[in-house]
Amino acid sequence: MAPCALLPLAALVAPLGAAADTKRPAAGRVLVVYFSRSGNTRVIAGHIGRSLGATVFEIQPAQPYPEDYFQTVEQARRERDSGFRPPLKDRVENLDAYDVVYLGFPIWGGTAPPVVRSFLAAHDLAGKTLTPFITHGGYGVGDSLKVVAAHASRARLREAALVMQADQEKQTTERVNRWLGDARPGSRPAN
Ligand SMILES: Cc1cc2nc3c(=O)[nH]c(=O)nc-3n(C[C@H](O)[C@H](O)[C@H](O)COP(=O)(O)O)c2cc1C
């Protein structure tokens, strides 16, 4: 056997072995998937994606949620209570290309948003390393990690999830409403 015949195998094995030993997964095999309404989770997803050289995929419902915050809260509550899984706008078609998935979402009504459940139900994450990153408005992650574990039971769920408190659209909306005061159509003039 010519000595150089071993080279291709060595060249193949070395990078894989090296990747397995490092904390940072190999670029190109990492997928960042996220849902975000008001942008907090999107900022984190973008940063993870740029830092790891990963592909970034935004989870979107086929039918967008209302622009209005309070209408969205109502709809999300109904969907959570009925177990409704909103249809997805798009799927990740080439999931086989990824070994490592970062999954980001905001807490809605004390749990993962319904469309995140839709995503997990529609994608088989078996064998993939799954790391959640979660933003919330001050009330913690609720049962969302259990929901992820139940919906992605064949993934290797990393316990070291990133959990961050972030701004609430509720507070922003209420603050702006107070500031607008009677400039809003239909509002009563202050005495
Ligand atoms: C429909 C809805 C429900 C929410 N429910 C909760 C909640 O139960 N607990 C909480 O701490 N924050 C709650 N929040 C606040 C968000 O979790 C928080 O602001 C999050 O960072 C928003 O992320 P985003 O900007 O990526 O959408 C809720 C926000 C929305 C829009």
Structural class: alpha/beta
Kindly report the CATH topology. Answer: Rossmann fold
CATH H level, superfamily name:
Flavodoxin domain
Bound molecules: flavin mononucleotide
Order of helical and strand elements? HEHEHEHEHEEH
What global shape is seen? elongated
Q: How does this model look, in words?
A:
The chain is an alpha/beta fold and 191 residues long. It has a single domain (26-183), classed as Rossmann fold (3-Layer(aba) Sandwich). The protein has helices at residues 7-21, 40-52, 69-82, 114-122, 144-151, 169-180; strands at residues 30-34, 55-58, 100-106, 129-136, 156-157, 162-165. Strand 1, helix 2 (40-52) and strand 2 form a beta-alpha-beta unit. The structure holds flavin mononucleotide.
Short description:
With 191 residues, the chain is of the alpha/beta class. It contains 6 helices and 6 strands, in the order αβαβαβαβαββα. The N terminus is likely disordered.
Topology:
Layout: H1 7-21, E1 30-34, H2 40-52, E2 55-58, H3 69-82, E3 100-106, H4 114-122, E4 129-136, H5 144-151, E5 156-157, E6 162-165, H6 169-180
Parallel strand pairs: 1-2, 1-3, 3-4, 4-5, 4-6
This protein binds flavin mononucleotide.
Attribute tags:
single chain, 191 residues, alpha/beta, Rossmann fold, 6-stranded parallel β-sheet, 6 strands, 37% helix, elongated, binds flavin mononucleotide
